[in-house]
Design brief:
about 80 residues, SH3 type barrels, 2 helices, 6 strands, about 10% helix, Ferrous iron transport protein A, FeoA_core_dom, Fe-transptr_FeoA-like, iron, FeoA
Amino acid sequence: MQNKVSLDKLDKGDEAVIDSFINDSLPAKFYELGFAPGSAITIKHKAPFNGPICINIKHDDSLIAIRKSEAALILATKI
């Protein structure tokens, strides 16, 4: 069994598949941006000092920057 980790814990260059969300209060915008269970992602950049995280959503090759606090609510399995 693979361990789930929140996106804020992944390092630059890490690839993962989104599994679930820590709570159901995440805005619908995350689904609209491509953060749906089963979506493959790559961490492209992590800004210093708790800054935003740039994530590549592989199915449409989009780059999305989200707050570290939001990334902490998204669970994924590292691949």
